[in-house]
Design a protein that fits this description.
Layout lengths: L1 H30 L2 H27 L14 H30 L7 H29 L2 H32 L7 H29 L6 H12 L6 E10 L2 E10 L5 H18 L3 E10 L7
């Protein structure tokens, strides 16, 4: 069910990005604005990112097999890294093009009223889709959807920046103030810097998961509390938790009464695992190693 929700959300972003690209291309051609051209590139790579997100979610939902004993959840994190690379490449190209136009010291922006109107419309779409994706990524713990959500968030802020830049150019023409065309390129550079900032956040997070960094401390503490309140467990140690996509995998050693039978200790481990998994639906598996407790140990 969770995989279906993720795929549905990814499909919505693909449709939204396709529509935004079509509209922005027309406006970029009509206006000649480098800032809107930057927005077209941003949306184009956001579309590619959405396609990678969809593919990552689709692959991550596949069950474990002979070649992937722990499942395929990390495909979502791979998708996030690819999206990060796309954002960086787009940002660097936009900065290059914007700086080139600044040094050229001449640039005409046309059909400003139309450009401002369309960018305001795309801003509204970005707000709606970004809020939807942030909500879905939080509910499903999807790394791919989170990356997509940040794509639309940067689209939102970049749209605001472009509107402000075009606004300066528009009033410069109305009031016959020379030189305000530079704000078009300045706006594009700000958009690119926002994209680089987001790429750092997304890339570092996806990479940390790929390197098996421990998850949020709250998750670990919840597991520790559940283990500590389990009857029959005298001591626990070597608790290890790692993330894979939206899933958690746990390893832990438990000390139990040395007189406990194999059958009883197995049942204890089974009951604890069921209890821990019930507390957090994103915990996919838990491996428990049973050890005999020393006589001086107390629960």
């Amino acid at each position: 069910m969770t995989a279906e929700r993720k795929l549905k959300a990814a499909s919505i972003t693909i449709a939204a990005n396709t529509g935004l690209i079509a509209v922005k291309i027309v406006v970029a051609i009509l206006s000649g604005s480098i800032a809107i051209f930057a927005e077209v590139l941003h949306s184009f790579f956001a579309l590619l990112a959405s396609l990678f997100a969809y593919g990552g979610i689709k692959l991550a939902s596949r069950p474990a097999d002979e070649d992937h004993h722990y499942g395929h959840e990390k495909f979502e994190n791979v998708s996030g890294l690819i999206q990060t690379l796309l954002i960086v490449l787009t940002a660097l190209f936009v900065i290059y093009e914007s700086v080139s136009r600044l040094f050229a010291k001449t640039h005409e922006v046309e059909n400003l009223a139309v450009a401002l109107g369309v960018m305001t419309l795309t801003l509204i779409v970005d707000i709606i889709v970004a809020r939807f994706l942030h909500k879905m990524s939080a509910e499903t713990r999807s790394a791919a959807l989170e990356a997509d959500a940040y794509h639309f968030s940067t689209d939102l802020w970049s749209a605001i920046t472009v509107i402000l830049g075009l606004g300066f150019v528009y009033f410069g023409e109305l009031l016959s103030i020379p030189g305000l065309w530079i704000f078009d390129s300045v706006a594009a550079i700000i958009v690119a810097l926002l994209m680089l900032s987001v790429s750092w956040h997304l890339g570092s997070k996806a990479l940390q998961v790929m390197l098996d960094r421990s998850p949020d401390e709250k998750v670990v503490r919840q597991i520790e509390r559940t283990i500590a309140t389990m009857p029959g467990v005298e001591l626990s140690h070597c608790l290890r938790v790692r993330e894979s996509g939206s899933a958690y995998f746990i390893d832990v050693h438990l000390h139990v009464d040395p007189a406990m039978t194999v059958r009883a200790s197995h049942q204890l481990a089974h009951d604890l695992k069921r209890k821990v998994l019930a507390k957090n639906p994103y915990i996919k598996d838990m491996t428990i190693h049973i050890e005999p407790a020393k006589r001086e140990e107390k629960k």
